[in-house]
Structures are given as C-alpha cells and as structure tokens.
Design the sequence.
C-alpha cells in the first residue's frame, strides 16, 4: 500500500451561501421514464418483502442476499473506489467481476456513474452537483434521478474527461452493451436462478426487485443521509458527515466527511478495518489473492493535522 498527498482544497459551503441556496426557488423538468420505473420497483419491492416473509424458500432468501452484497460491491468497490477515485488498481479478472456486479445493481452504466460522481465531488452541494443536498432530502436521495439535470450540472458535465474510462476495454464493453447486459444480469438471471430449486417465478421475480430497490436506496443514502445527519470530525466547513448507520447499509460508505476530505483513500475511512467497512475488507482480500494492488491511503499524521486544523470540536 502507498500513502498519497491529500488534496485539502475541499468544496466549502459557507452558512450564508447554504441558506441562500436552500431558499432559492427551484424548477424541475420531470424525466418520466425513470419516474415511472422508480414508482414501479418500489411498489413491487413491498410485495417482494411480503413474499419474502410469507412464501419465499430459504434458498431464495439466501440467494437474494448474496446477489445484494455482490451488486453493492459493484458500486462501492467498483465504480466508486476503483474507477472514480482510483484508490487502488485491479487486474482484469477483478475488473470484469466488478463490472458485472455493478451491472447487477442497475444503477446506470459504470461510465455514466463515474461521470456523475466526479461532478459530485468536484462541485459538491452546488447546482453542478447532480444530487445537490441543498435542494432537500428527497431531491438528493432519489428526486434528482427523476428530473432532468440542472443546466449547471449539464454544462459542467461536458468538462469531465472520460477518455481513460472509454479506453478501458471492460468499461467500454459495458457501455456499448449496457441495455442488454444490465437487463440480463440485473433482472433475468436473478429471477430465473431460484427456479432451479422449484421457487415460483412470481416469488423469484419480486424478491429480485426487492433486492434491486434495496441496493439502489443503500447507495442513495450516501447522497442524502450522509450529507445531512452526523458529525464532521475532519472538516466542519463541508456538508458531508460521518454516519455509521449509512456505513452499515452501504458497506462502509458512510464515513463521508472523511471521504470528501480524503477521496483517494481506498478505505474511505480512517478506521479502514472497521467491521462496518465491508468494502475495505473485500479490497484487502482481493489484494491478498493478487487481484488488487497499489492501495492508496492517508498517513496518520496527515489525518491528525487535518482534524486539528478544520475538524468539528466536540
């Protein structure tokens, strides 16, 4: 593992600017396809939960849980820590595995996800941030995906350099074949596998939609809850916070104040071996078997200095 020189030029949102942004009237242009989709999967997920409690076989429940974890890792270890922040490097087998896992999450193509998340970090909690938290909880949680992007986000998005991502054969393949690949990996296969042990298709299908919805919301609470409720021990001048509940559901992504201060730390947390940080454990395991390497982290003295300089005092 190698330490890196942390960039301390974090996006700062002063209190007066924050209040001005919150008070500013907002206009929304609805994106009807994602709106209808999100309504459908959430309703279907409720029925899936009912079937999971009353009807589903234990093998189906176990299978759904495994696919849930794998598709979540596609987000946390894949598009987030590997391809957006380049916190570590991965050999081709691991890259293919993470691309397939991310496809199973049905959270856009990897290149599109990285593009949006890069904007989020570069212009945190401004109108150029796709899920600007100053626009309210619902908007930064899921509303942003139901409306067309703010003109500022669209304009700034054109400046994001995606050439390295398109040069990656794994990501280029997924981008080129995203429609059928995501349909196959996220919906068809997980809905058919339980039929092997004689589960009904209705149960298998709705349990999978429950899984898709839970993965979606587990990733979205990093945009919403982890920008609103928690502590700011590393930088009190930014909105992202530390929230252990988010870390539990999002496999270690809730140490968000730390992550926005030190985005290139592969652990996304000072306590990288914390039991809540399953993604860090996964990356460490991949390193032990030779699939992950060049993990980047922040030295303890740099962390301590930042806490002393800008941290929230208890």
Sequence:
């Amino acid at each position: 593992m190698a330490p890196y020189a942390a960039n301390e030029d974090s996006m700062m949102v002063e209190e007066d600017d924050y209040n001005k942004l919150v008070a500013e009237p907002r206009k929304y242009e609805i994106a009807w396809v994602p709106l209808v989709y999100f309504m459908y999967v959430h309703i279907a997920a409720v029925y899936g939960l009912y079937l999971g409690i009353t009807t589903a076989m234990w093998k189906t429940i176990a299978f759904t849980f495994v696919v849930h974890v794998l598709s979540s890792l596609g987000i946390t270890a894949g598009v987030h820590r590997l391809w957006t922040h380049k916190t570590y490097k991965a050999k081709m087998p691991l890259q293919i595995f993470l691309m397939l896992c991310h496809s199973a999450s049905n959270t856009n193509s990897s290149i599109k996800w990285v593009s949006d998340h890069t904007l989020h970090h570069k212009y945190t909690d401004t109108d150029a941030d796709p899920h600007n938290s100053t626009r309210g909880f619902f908007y930064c949680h899921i509303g942003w995906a139901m409306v067309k992007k703010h003109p500022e986000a669209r304009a700034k998005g054109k400046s994001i350099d995606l050439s390295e991502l398109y040069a990656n054969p794994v990501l280029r393949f997924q981008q080129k074949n995203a429609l059928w690949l995501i349909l196959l990996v996220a919906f068809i296969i997980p809905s058919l596998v339980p039929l092997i042990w004689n589960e009904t298709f209705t149960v298998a299908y709705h349990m999978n939609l429950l899984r898709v919805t839970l993965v979606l919301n587990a990733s979205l609470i990093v945009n919403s809850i982890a920008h609103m409720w928690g502590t700011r021990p590393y930088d009190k001048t930014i909105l992202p916070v530390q929230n252990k509940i988010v870390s539990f559901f999002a496999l270690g992504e809730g140490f968000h104040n730390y992550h926005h201060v030190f985005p290139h730390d592969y652990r996304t947390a000072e306590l990288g071996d914390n039991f809540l940080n399953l993604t860090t454990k996964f990356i460490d395991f991949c390193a032990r078997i030779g699939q992950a390497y060049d993990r980047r982290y922040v030295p303890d003295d740099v962390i301590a200095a930042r806490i002393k300089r800008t941290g929230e005092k208890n």
Summary: Residues 2-310 form one domain. Residues 71 and 191 are 15 Å apart (CA to CA).
